Amino acid sequence: MKTPLCDLQYSELEELVAAAGEPRYRAEQLCRHIVAYDGFEEYTDLPKSFIAKLRENYFDRPFIEKSRVVSTDGATRYLFETAEGDLVEAVFLPHGYGNSVCVSCQVGCAMGCTFCASGYYGFKRNLSAGEILAQALFIARDKKDEGGVKKIVMMGSGEPLANYDNTVKFFKLLSSKKGLNIGMRSISISTCGLPDKIERLARDGFSGTLSLSLHAATDEKRKKIMRVANSHTVKDIVKSMRTFFDATRRRVVIEYILIAGFNDTDADVSALKNLLRGLCCHVNLIPLNPTDHCDLKPPTKKQAYAFCAKLNDAKISATVRRSMGSDVAGACGQLKNRTVEAEMVSKNLSKR
């Protein structure tokens, strides 16, 4: 099995070059090509014999683009395909203050949240650090003339902290001065709540933004929509977020998908106030993005802003998140699922 070249840190590139008997400066040349997401045919400053050795053991590009859809607001959802045929989604989000990319960290997802399309077909495998990075590298190259990429959000398909080692290596590759050189404060990691990994994250050098996908302030409600709630209580998860804040002094984000008639009541405001008391946080309210296989509904815009106002009145910092790309299969996993289903239909028709 070949390894993506973008999986390698600079020190590993130096080892690769030395083992091939090439001069040390080849590592710098390799690094430039990797960051530019060049194909081997573009490695014109390297000897053909060295490139041949690279081809034997490494992928120049771990993904090819299978399709893309562009929203009216400029958001672009990409569907990538690996050499093994796995499908992976990433999203480009244009902003005046710096474009961002939302990347996936797994093929599928094992968390089983009822409102999320990512895990509908189950979990297949973790992505390597280089495969996660390749999504950002591809889009940075593709959007070079539009300002490139300044921010990264790990909020696509998969649970980053369930792919812990690759997540940590990814943010180190991403923030390397020889890589995309995206500062830690421009990196966000979203988790559905794995307390031991949250506490470990700060110890392993992450000082970016940590977001908790909470979505309900009580264990009773959370268990109805999130499988992870059967393993970890909201109190334990929030306690680990406090530990993260104490270690990093970075305000944490509480992601809260609003589901009409389920978690948008006055009782939910009270429960959130009690749960988050004393935590330096901001609540990011996200009206549910309906998916093909879920009957849950979002509140109206008026209801969402009314819930936000009640949180603010309760002294909880909160805003309603601007939705981007909702007209292009905006929910994580939705473009992939529709593609898979279309291909299944096509195969079945061809057998008739």
**Roughly what fraction of the amino acids lie in strands?**
15-25%
- Please count the helical segments: 11
State the end-to-end CA separation.
36 Å
Mean pLDDT: 91
SS-derived structural category = alpha/beta
In the sheet with the most strands, the strands line up as 3-4-5-6-9-10-11-12-13-14
Brief summary of the model shown:
Helices cover 37% and strands 19% of the residues. By secondary structure, the chain is of the alpha/beta class.
What does the model show?
It contains 11 helices and 14 strands. β12, α9 and β13 form a beta-alpha-beta unit. The longest helix is centred in the C-terminal third of the chain and has 17 residues. The chain is elongated and about 70 Å long. The two termini are 36 Å apart. The relative contact order is 0.12. About 3% of the residues have low confidence.
Q: Mind sketching the topology for me?
A:
Layout: E1 3-4, H1 10-19, H2 25-35, H3 48-57, E2 58-59, E3 63-70, E4 76-82, E5 87-93, E6 100-102, E7 106-108, E8 123-126, H4 129-142, E9 151-154, H5 164-175, E10 187-191, H6 195-203, E11 209-213, H7 219-225, H8 234-248, E12 252-258, H9 266-276, E13 281-287, H10 301-313, E14 318-320, H11 334-350
Parallel strand pairs: 1-2, 6-9, 9-10, 10-11, 11-12, 12-13, 13-14
Antiparallel strand pairs: 3-4, 4-5, 5-6, 7-8
Helix pairs in contact: 1-2, 4-5, 6-8
